Amino acid sequence: MSNIYNLEPPTKGKVVLKTNFGDIDIELWPKEAPKACRNFVQLCMEGYYDSTIFHRIMKDYLVQGGDPTGTGQGGESIYGGLFRDEFHTRLRFAHRGIVACANQNEPHTNGSQFFITLGAADWLDKKNTIFGKVVGDTIYNLLRLGDVEVDSETDRPLDPPVIKEAEVVWNPFDDLVPRRDARREREEAAAKKEAEAAAAKHKSGKSSQKNLGLLSFGEEAEEEESQLAAVAAAARIKSAHDILEDSRLAKAEETPAEEAIVMERPAKKSR
After folding, report:
1. Alpha helix segments (H runs only) across 46-181
2. Cα dihedral 15/91/142/115 (nearest 10)
3. In angstroms, rounded to a whole number, what is the distance separating the alpha carbons of residues 134 and 147?
């Protein structure tokens, strides 16, 4: 096995696929497959693969991803269409961890999709463009990813593994400039959405408080009105007849005859 690795040309460039099964480190062969490597690196830099899934997994054979639609039918290269195959005599599907372009089972039909082998697959030599390989202990994360349960008819995972982010650690192309920063656009869109939600929540809370205040005021007004009515009824001015009949008011007591003081007129003087 070591002889097989020794026959491979040196790598240049590195990308890390951050998945929910752990990191997968991929080293590249930009000299042997320049178009495929440039396509892969630029799509990674643009955030094209972020939050995409591995939509096809065949045990002990391969895992396939790179389709933003997650169907296996989508994806587009940086060239605006399909690009040509690139084969090299020293690059073969001789061991697990080989990274290559997925095509439409026809020559020169490469796009954004790629696959990684889970074992040797020499029947794919000169059928699919090899542009990288998985290195280090991250190969074990790849193998764990390849063990997930799938639909036996479609090879689609029941719970598809996710590429959370594709990070370019070493860009082998000095002249490569991303067409857009999809990652930044997503962050800005998320921040805008969060700000709008916060503003709506604040407005809703303010409106709710205002309505509660009006309701409270209305209740207090009704209560005050009832109290005023009660006071007015109690303090209503009574008629003279009512006053005389009011037991709370003291009646004038009659003076007994024997105690009455009679004021007589003075007698006239006789002349």
Report:
1. 139-145
2. 80
3. 17
